[in-house]
Amino acid sequence: MYSEPEFKKPYDDFRERYPSCTKYLDKSVDVKKCAKCHFPGARYNIDTSNCAESLNALFDKARKMSLLLMFDTVIDKIAEWFNRHRKYAVLGPSSRKWVPLVENKIHDRVPKGTKLTVTSLNTFQLEYSVIGEDGKTYLVDLRNKTCSCRKFDIDKFPCRHAISVVVKCLKHDRPVELSDIYDFISSYYFTKVLGLAYRRTVFPVPHITDWMVPQSVADECPLPPLELKQLKDRRDLKALKALKKLKELKKLKELKELKELKELREIFENFVRLCEDFVKTL
Question: What are the pLDDT digits (tens) for 194-206?
Answer without folding.
Answer: 888 888 999 988 8
